[in-house]
Amino acid sequence: MDPTPGSTVRTDRLVREFRTGAERLTAVDEVSLEIAGGSVVALTGPSGSGKSTLLHLIGAIERADRGSLTVDDVEVTALRRGALARYRQRVGFVFQRYHLLPALTVLDNVIAPVLPLPGRADHAARARELLAAVGLEGRERALPAQLSGGQQQRVAIARALMGRPRLLLADEPTGNLDSATGAQILDLLLDLRERHGMTILLATHERAIAARCDRLIRLGDGRLVEDIDLTDGEDPAETFDRASRLRL
Ligand SMILES: Nc1ncnc2c1ncn2[C@@H]1O[C@H](COP(=O)(O)OP(=O)(O)O)[C@@H](O)[C@H]1O
Ligand SMILES: [Mg+2]
């Protein structure tokens, strides 16, 4: 196991607004959170509640309008362009629709994010290792269309790990998969958390997925409306039972 437990994340009254014409919509509304390094957190809430926007803010894909984001000891919301780009490279992202490049092989998709950087042979070796770690050894030369949805998501996860992230953000990573395949993707994420030492924040609508996380955070209209510790030091079966009764 990697000695680093994954990034700690702290948001303080984080706000993101969108303006369309005269309308102003607060997608993320004063969200304050503290996420412990190495935890796996489910982000839930109805469609439009701000899950994706919050993930984008934490990954610095979008900028907050107000409030602060601190990851480990770095105040991300205060970073200038160059430092912000470096921060972004160290965050892993996984999306519901995989976002693989259809014309590239599986191996090249995994290498793609580091392609501008020198050291192609090293990258290829690392990409092969990661593909083996996600259970895709032997499929390096396949094209995405030749893989199942679950396999494509495994490629996307391997790609997200290329930058050795200590923080992985997953936006409904099992949303396009049947429940058995989705459970396997979560198994993989939990296993990678152990082996690589990562904090994982994942948006999900699925109770079976959320129930296996360490913590559940629910958003409603951009606000934090519920925050439940699912570990709590109690019997896991009891935790699961309680979680299975959660409204999602
Ligand atoms: N780029 C954008 N421009 C305008 N409104 C947006 C944009 N992105 C998201 N929104 C709005 O912000 C709110 C939160 O969206 P989102 O974060 O995608 O929610 P969720 O992921 O929970 O479905 C929604 O009302 C959505 O329509
Ligand atoms: Mg979303």
UniProtKB/TrEMBL annotation:
Protein name: ABC transport system ATP-binding protein
The species this protein was found in: Micromonospora echinospora (Micromonospora purpurea)
Classification via PANTHER family: IMPORT ATP-BINDING PROTEIN, TRANSPORTER, PUTATIVE-RELATED
Organismal lineage: Bacteria, Bacillati, Actinomycetota, Actinomycetes, Micromonosporales
PROSITE patterns hit by this protein: ABC_TRANSPORTER_1, ABC_TRANSPORTER_2
Keywords in alphabetical order: ATP-binding, Nucleotide-binding, Transport
Gene Ontology molecular functions: ATP binding
Keyword hit for ATP-binding: yes
Record-annotated ABC transporter domain positions: 9-246
Any Pfam family the entry gives: ABC_tran
SMART domains, per database record: AAA
Listed Gene3D superfamilies: P-loop containing nucleotide triphosphate hydrolases
